Known about the structure:
- It contains 8 helices and 7 strands, in the order βαβααβααβαβαββα.
- It has helices spanning 17-29, 46-61, 63-68, 78-82, 109-124, 146-160, 175-197, 220-235, and strands at residues 5-12, 32-39, 69-76, 126-130, 165-167, 209-210, 213-214.
- The strands form 2 sheets. The protein has a 5-stranded parallel beta sheet, with helices on both faces. It has a two-stranded antiparallel ribbon with strand order 6-7.
- α6 (146-160) links the parallel β4 (126-130) and β5.
- The longest helix is centred in the C-terminal third of the chain and has 23 residues, at 175-197.
- The protein starts with a strand and ends with a helix.
- Zinc ion is lined by residues 201-203, 205, 215-216, 219, 221-222.
Amino acid sequence: MTAMDPDCTLVLFSGGQDSTVCLAWALERFARVETVGFDYEQRHRAELEARPRVRERMKTLAPAWAARLGEDHVLELGALAAISDTALTREVAIAIGESGLPTTFVPGRNLIFLAFAGALGYRRGAKHLVAGMCETDFSGYPDCRDDTIKAMQLALNLGMERRFVIHTPLMWIDKAATFALAHEIGGDALLDVLVEDTHTCYLGDRSQRHDWGYGCGTCPACRLRADGFAKWMSTR
Ligand code: ZN
């Protein structure tokens, strides 16, 4: 299919909490929702392993979601690992590097993801791309900024002669508000998917279960998630 379908949507879906909320957000809005994930030789497989599990559970949350959720695509991006030397792809300590950015920063990662998502979306006839970038309480990754995403939308539309719309529903909300949004969309059932099945911990730890989900509890991703959950719970 190459014709553009105004309802067809491609969600950048990692298996983490944020992209799962984005998937739910898309399933509420669009008639056909496909997912794409990227295998860039992350140093653990926990997120990639979470993807099929989360997709299956999403189908059980609402008959309409089951009907709308379409194909899944996993793109191999080993080249990204080959040119990266970061804490997400190598055994490098998670800390603030000399550049002032965390060592978890993979340069250009989201630009590459969006370029591939655009190419795949073109082939699949998707008008909408949905992605979980957020500049509100994140680590200052420059490729999560709203301006970066808008520039990529413009570049894709010029370079592919299309009219993609990139949606980033989490851009201006913090982690507590992300939990609130998930609850608003899918209630306790979606919250349960986030806690039990999504994976966000940088270290890939699934041996420790907390009230906010599985993880080491100490890496930046776990701390952000734990703090957001505690803040959301205190305002419920
Ligand atoms: Zn962790």
